[in-house]
Amino acid sequence: MGRRSDHSRAELEELILSTGSALIAESGLGGFSAREVARRIDYSIGTIHNVFGTADRLIAAINTRSFAAWAKSLRERLDAAGPDGDRIAALVDGYFGFAREHPHLWTAIFDHRLPPDSGLTEADETGRSLLTHIVVEEIAHAVGGDVDDSLATLARSLIATVHGHCAFAISGAWALMGEAAPEAAALARVREALAARSAR
Amino acid sequence: MGRRSDHSRAELEELILSTGSALIAESGLGGFSAREVARRIDYSIGTIHNVFGTADRLIAAINTRSFAAWAKSLRERLDAAGPDGDRIAALVDGYFGFAREHPHLWTAIFDHRLPPDSGLTEADETGRSLLTHIVVEEIAHAVGGDVDDSLATLARSLIATVHGHCAFAISGAWALMGEAAPEAAALARVREALAARSAR
DNA sequence: ATATAAATTGGACAATGCTCAATTATAGGT
DNA sequence: ACCTATAATTGAGCATTGTCCAATTTATAT
């Protein structure tokens, strides 16, 4: 069994998070179990609760971690597109990309619900808002405007648009509906919205 | 305890479904329990499994039921709009309406996942496709075209668009992001897409 | 009435999340 | 070096869940 000399508190947190993330990645949120995480890292179930308090809070932390990885990969695709590339396509592809590469992690983000009383940690909140910020700034750049309220509203609406397409694509909701190119459809909707805004 | 003389098989199915639906409506998918349903209808846990086989299949059946109610309310709003009314707005409002009135039931539809091996029943599949059919026909009517592949693709894309907005609105994802009018944004995106199609 | 078929029960099992007294390890002071 | 206080870690215990299935109860047909 694990002893405190083996891992510092920070290391232990990291160990639990990465193991939990791997578990969700391979079994989905439904297959997650705090006890299974404990088994895999060879610590007792009590330790998990000492560090994260609750299985729900652990899952929330794992999801925040997923968010960070998602934002990172999104940023990388934007950088790869370059200043004169098709950055809108990169944005949409970045959204879909992480979901396609890590469907269970991506799905867990949106399937998990905290119990009614408790909300997200401050750290969780800020960690998750990064992705939105990237998109808002990118949309501002695309339409050549400042980041005012109406632009932020548009950006969020575009995120929602892409999200809806991605959610159906990943869940397989329309795998049998014969939808061949959900990402292309999402991109088309985004371009139409941006064109409409520019033509205003 | 329940006896077979109290309820026919069909009545029993209905009793379990409506009780389960009520349970999800008040406690969410996370608060659902087959045993709690059994307690509420005063039958044993074994009976639930005799009728529905598995808790997951019961939840799937409850969700199909929700789908039916959703489609019904959507149809009613379309009828209320009349032939010359704003039927596109009615469509979007119908999507949001059910979600707003029954957030837990609506959320359960998209949160629930069947175990990897088993899929939906034939009955579940057809029951759920109704909503899509309504939208496809309505979009065909709006753009004045036949129901060909490209139109069906557009319709599904619009459903995805509205879905994304609705999902964020109901989950409270952007309640704290200061998003005031998710439904209005969804409607705007749909109108832009339809306008782009008409201008083709 | 009796026999056959079907529905219903509920105890048993494995698994889960969470709690908390007991145990064990670390660090600090003398 | 020893002792002490502080902190980390354990794991048995409890309530709860889904699923199974042998035994029981009920309905129906003969």
Number of helices, where a helix is a run of at least 4 consecutive DSSP H or I residues of chain A: 9
Name the helicity range of chain A.
over 70%
Name the chain pair with the biggest interface and residue counts per chain: A-B, 36 and 36 residues
Largest sheet of chain A: none
**What is the number of beta strands of chain A?**
0
Question: What overall geometry of chain A do the principal axes of the alpha carbons give?
Answer: elongated
Please outline what is shown here.
In chain A, 74% of the residues lie in helices and 0% in strands.
Q: Can you characterise this structure?
A:
The first copy, chain A, is elongated. The first copy, chain A, starts with 8 loop residues before the first helix and ends with a helix. The first copy, chain A, has helices at residues 9-27, 34-41, 45-52, 55-81, 87-101, 103-111, 122-143, 149-171, 182-198. Chain A has 9 helices and no strands. Chain A is 74% helix and 0% strand. The structure holds a DNA duplex (30 and 30 nucleotides).
